Structure prediction request, 134 residues.
Amino acid sequence: MIPVYLHLGLMSAAFLAMSSGIVVSRFCKKKKWWLKVHKGLNITAAVMVLSAVVIIAISVRTSGGPHFRVSHAFYGAAALILIASTPALGFAMFKTKDKTKIAGLKKLHRWSGRITIVLMAAAIIAGFSLLGIF
Ligand code: HEM
Ligand code: HEM
Prediction:
């Protein structure tokens, strides 16, 4: 059960960090520090999610069960894909040399980030129902 609690704890902390990172980009853009805090919180959240998935994947493997046997795992995997692509889009906004692409990348990043947090919430609800809590 310890890996499940570690998975739960890290994912919940990641959700809180990512929500705060999104709130900062939405409401604190007039502050000088907003981008630093947005990047810091979101990258920390992505690292926590990755560690939590590695922990649970090792636990599923050592208990002999097949991977992806519950719907929760699919919500989680979808969230994971966006957790990797959203920061990549964020960095691409600053790296692109073609200025005409910046507005499109911003829009993609904003929507990718919003969908990421919704998928995280869905995975968390499915995770709790897996444990019989909801
Ligand atoms: C954003 C949040 C979450 C994500 C992205 C996520 C992701 C995943 C993924 C990808 C797996 C599949 C691992 C595999 O089959 O190798 C998994 C398994 C699991 N998760 Fe989560 N998870 C999240 C939150 C939670 C929460 C909050 C709980 C508990 C309340 C939880 C409980 C579990 C359990 C018990 C398994 C093992 C399922 C099994 O035995 O096959 N997860 N999770
Ligand atoms: C998992 C990681 C990330 C998530 C989930 C995320 C999510 C978001 C969301 C939802 C917004 C729009 C907020 C709103 O106004 O409604 C946003 C804005 C923004 N993010 Fe991120 N972000 C992430 C990482 C990054 C990174 C790594 C960078 C920079 C390298 C970045 C740079 C920006 C910028 C510049 C904006 C403002 C875009 C605009 O002006 O519309 N983000 N982010």
Notes: Helices lie at 2-27, 34-62, 71-95, 102-130. The CA atoms of residues 50 and 65 lie 20 Å apart. Residues 18, 22, 25-26, 35, 38-39, 42-43, 46, 83, 86-87, 90-91, 93-94, 106, 109-110, 113-114, 116 surround protoporphyrin IX containing FE (ligand 2) (CB under 6 Å).
